[in-house]
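Run log, item B.
One chain of 387 residues. Sequence copied directly from the ordering sheet:
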Amino acid sequence: MSRIRTRTLLVGTATLAAALTACSGGGTGKADAADTSGKSTEISVNLRGKQAKAGEPVKVTLADGRLKQVTVTDTEGGKLDGKVSADGKSWTSGRNAAPGTGYTVRATAEGGGSAEADFATAAADRVNKLTLAPGKNTTVGIAHPLSIVFDSPVENKAYVEKHLKVSTSDNTEGSWGWMQDYSGKDRVDWRPKEYWKPGTKVSLKADLNGIDSGDGGWFVRDYATNLTIGKKQVVKVDLDNHRLKLMRDGQLVKDVPMSAGTPGGDKASWRGTAVLMSKEGTINMRSETVGLGDAYDKMVDYSMRLTWSGMYAHAAPWNAAYFGNTNHSSGCVGMSDGDASAVYGAVQVGDPFEITGNDAKGTVALNNGYGDWNISWADWQAKSALR
């Protein structure tokens, strides 16, 4: 049952006490407020009881007179903001009531009377969570998208997308695009129309608390991240000429010989734009993890991940005879220890590796790391659920 408490600032105590008894017994979600003339006016709340339906805005209605102010707070101290209607008769929260949450509603009429009501929403039967990239307070290269991977399927994609707010310091144009992540989970990325401008400040607010994702369940919290765009760097990988060039602000910083994937089969490299996902240092690389049998099992230095499927740029001293003349690796871009160390030290997570040439097995897919840049801007925009 809804527990309704009422009080008057000036007069009408007897009337309000009577209303309190009726509301507590019947659970009607109604309370009375008194104005300065002693007139009693009825206020009702659309949600009431201990098992109210989540996922709806809170609406407070005044029978007579005009509402002055309404506050809705939860048990954690959070607040649902909202607006009074033009006629002053009602107030509606801008966000939904979240599952498994208790709320207190306080309403004040222009005449001076006030009323208070409590309700709680039913707990979620299923909860959906998500992972944001990049992480908070990070600096990334000019190609890194904002990326969200959901733990459970998102059926209500358009509704969820409406609650994802991106802000930039320079009004960067961009769009959300939905896909299935390489892991098989639902994912949505926000990609600028063109590479980010260096120094841009970016923030994402995912105001999802109280949003139903569909079969995957409810979101029961908000999420946020922020980042800064770092130096303007592009790594150009020419598969046919066996060169890797690091460009900064349009100027050549490093030009090194390399050997990429052996053409003509599964060991060939990908072409297109791959985004540096992580700098992983020294790692163990095993061929069976990428479907190449027992071809190799090596500790590899200066490892820079480019795709989920296992394409890296890294040191490959065992392949030195092929640097600058032949593609002869199992799909990665290999360099000498010294060159790999220099490139590793200079690049940023989020730098684009623009890979060109005929010696490739295809183009990096959207979900194979951050392949967002491998389709046109128009095609990317079409992947928004709001188009």
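Observations after the first pass:
- The first strand starts at residue 3 and ends at 7.
- The CA atoms of residues 366 and 372 lie 5 Å apart.
Flagged for discussion on Thursday.
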